[in-house]
Design brief:
five-stranded mixed β-sheet, globular, 24% helix, 286 residues, alpha/beta, disordered N terminus, binds zinc ion
Length: 286
Amino acid sequence: MKKLLLSIALLALSSQTLLAGQKNTADIKLYALNCGRIHVSDLNVFSDTDQYIGKEKTLNVGCYLIKHNDSWLLWDTGLSSDLAKKPEGITSGVFHMTLEKNIAQQIEPLGLKPKDITHVAISHGHFDHTSNVNEFTDANLIIQRAEYNMIKNKADEAEKIYMYKRDIGYFLKDENSKQLNIINGDKDIFGDGSVKAIYLPGHTPGHMALLVNLPKTGAVILSGDQWHFTENHKSNDVPTFNVDRADTLASSDKLNKIIKNRGAKLIIQHEINDNQNLPKIPKALE
Ligand SMILES: [Zn+2]
């Protein structure tokens, strides 16, 4: 009888562990890609309370490749590959953009080609996060419902800061396609607690961040554009071009609490300092 009770207790404990999603036995690694640089000649566009009048700054454009067992998940696809053919870069408004190597060139040392990418997840639909989605037509696209609707309902001539429909056109053709994984809110992507999308509306309607639970480093947060640089995180400024101020502040509060409760390492995707110390491909954060 005692033995039976003990096995029931152990069974209950193991199912609890699985439910909590804490038990992570997946082979998981995070590779940092460099998907461009943006020099901002008027940093004040990142504050609707005039925090940065007269300031300028160079931002990183971060894309990340996550190995999960036999799957390869690309988080954000950065500035357009075409930009790598123009070393002088291009200017649009207050942004001057450059790109050294496209994604295909950067994943080559891992023995990977674009067709090997099994999942693409985009934090949101701005052009500096999504310009190359159509290069990964063998992948499943993971996107929030609110963001998908927003992109789909836009006119062909997209607003300046949003991606052009042609960059994601393959995935707009058939909303019932098995290659589309449209999600609503937070989502445990592989069902084992190791990679989780965190819904953070405000910057755009369906903006999200990604939590990656690495075996050695522990929890890592890829910020999306919840914050654009360290100072912007500390002062919690709201960019002038966000779609909803109140939602942005609520999302900041949510993400700050997750970072605290999980003891997570925060990588602000546009902050050069958060990215330059990450291992360079073929090395990974483990
Ligand atoms: Zn951005």
